[in-house]
Amino acid sequence: MPELPEVEITKRGIEPWVLDKTMSQAEVRNSSLRWKVPDDLNQKVKSQKIVSLKRRGKYILAELSNQQNLIIHLGMSGSLRVIKNAQAPEKHDHVIFHLQNGVELRFNDPRRFGCILLTNDIQNHALIKNMGPEPLTTEFNGQYLKSLAKNKTQAVKNFIMDGKVVVGVGNIYACESLFAAGIHPKRAASKVSLQKYEQLVEEIKKVLSQAIESGGTTLRDFVNSEGKPGYFAQQLKVYGRKGEDCFNCQSPIAQITLGQRSSFYCKKCQH
DNA sequence: CAGCACTCCTGTTCGC
DNA sequence: TGCGAACAGGAGTGCT
């Protein structure tokens, strides 16, 4: 499932093929995504050049020459692939952006939790404006987390997965960074010390950076812009390892549900 | 406001 | 072997 590293990998992969390129058509084959793909998508993107490509949290933002911004989210199972030689669309290729250079950018998403939207005011768009800081910036640090966590009874795992706190930290990387920092996922956010938050921030940055270097985590669905999987899954220390030995202390990894999500942790190493 | 649970969806896995 | 149930989860929405 695409989290920040997978979205970053996707953005980097498509960038050379779409930046400064002009679109000839947006072919909507299935508009029924998380939110309906705008009816006027083709009309608005046709003949427009992609003048910048950015990632914000797990959103990919493509700025067009007519001041519109495409907002793309990969949801749970989405991918954006660059198709250089025209071939028949595959199942779940919901939107195909045709470029004038003959390349196609295909949005494929079996579970359709993703979205493709357009806005002429990206800064104030509802999905964007209330987002927390990017995790790989200095703005995201231990002090910041500690002060936000004040009086919060919420479990620390849910806290760091809240996009208003910090963007891009999904279930897998939340589990991994909490393990690396030795923090129990259920611990109340307010009861985590500043030192522990500093350690947690360091681990979040580390695990996200390493995952980007490995091309992302592919558990089942994720493929990059070339249709290839990422290789970080084999470096996961706790996620998906219920009952297996902790790499640190050899006791079995536990699984609990927190905020409707599976959480994996070591009872002995995380407090 | 804070903190949950619910919801969208399909492919895969599991139990009988 | 086949079938239905359970599970997976990003994140906005709505409820308590």
Concise summary:
With 271 residues, the protein is an alpha+beta fold. The protein has helices at residues 4-18, 41-45, 126-129, 142-148, 156-160, 171-181, 194-213; strands at residues 23-28, 50-56, 59-64, 69-73, 79-83, 93-99, 104-108, 115-119, 253-258, 261-266.
N- to C-terminal separation? 27 Å
Please tell me the overall pLDDT.
Answer: 91
**What is the chains' assembly state?**
single chain
Percentage of residues in helical conformation: 10-25%
| Biggest β-sheet: strands ordered side by side in the sheet | 1-6-7-5
Secondary structure tally, helices: 7
* Proportion of residues in extended strands: 15-25%
Number of strands: 10
How do the helices and strands follow one another from N- to C-terminus? HEHEEEEEEEHHHHHEE
The secondary-structure class comes to alpha+beta
Main sheet record: 4 strands, antiparallel
Report the C-alpha radius of gyration, rounded: 20 Å
Low-confidence stretches: none
What's the overall geometry? globular
